Amino acid sequence: MFQRSDKNHTLLDLRGSIPSYILITDGKYHDSNVLDLIIPEINAIYVMDKAYIDFKALFRMNELGAFFISRAKTTIDFSVIENNYNIDESTGLRGDRTIILNGIKTKKLYPEKLRLVEFYDDEKDIVLTFLTNNSSATALEIARLYRNRWQIETFFKWIKQNLTIKKLWGHSENAVNIHVWVAICTYLIIAKVKHEFKSELSIYEIMQILGISVFDKTPIQELLTEYQINQDVKDQLNLFNENF
């Protein structure tokens, strides 16, 4: 799952909410170029923002046996070759079409069929259009899979709130890179601790315990097992309290 956060391009593995690929670039680096740097896994589903749409890279992903789901750009030029009328609009679905691209360049870059799924978001009162190469999942499953992309928004929010990434120590390229990597490494180390000791505490809670126990000689496992939460940490952003 891809999302841009300033200069941080991140692929988040939703099976554990762990970043599996990170690229830090300057603001001029085009988002879609990141797709050229990863090797897609067979049968994996990559959910991304429409800024990452690059039909050449997406077709490479398709040829390697991976799937993608993205918001479709409003400028996409296509022809409908099949329309699925067997949809339940009470679920929010508004359309499920098989298409081919019409643009001279885009058709050459992606010559195979694609799928457009339309879903009405009643909270924002807008119709969202998703582009995918997955023809086996139902239209509703495609829409629900894309909703998982918001987990990466929450990931960056968690990083900024809990690892002080919002305040940089320096503003040179090297300083920014060091600060971002230190924050991410801190998160991964704590996530590893949580996994190794099978702790039911959230990562935020573990951070609080370790923060006040830096000079404590008690083994970490005992700290996590015996420590009684006596602060209102449950009201803090508790993103990664899922299964590892």
Main features:
single chain; 244 residues; alpha+beta; 3-stranded antiparallel beta sheet; 7 helices; 9 strands; elongated; disordered C terminus
Q: In what range is the share of β-strand residues?
A: 15-25%
Please tell me how large the radius of gyration is.
Answer: 21 Å
Distance between the termini: 18 Å
Poorly predicted sequence stretches spanning 5 or more consecutive residues: 228-244
What spatial form do the alpha-carbon principal axes imply? elongated
**Count of beta strands:** 9
Which structural class is indicated by helix and strand composition? alpha+beta
Structural features, described:
- The protein contains seven helices and nine strands, in the order E-E-E-E-H-E-E-E-H-E-E-H-H-H-H-H.
- The protein has 244 residues and is α+β, with helices and mostly antiparallel strands.
- The strands form two sheets. Strands 4-5-9-8-7-6 form a six-stranded mixed beta sheet, sandwiched between helices.
- The radius of gyration is 21 Å and the shape is elongated.
- The chain starts with a strand and ends in an 18-residue tail after the last helix.
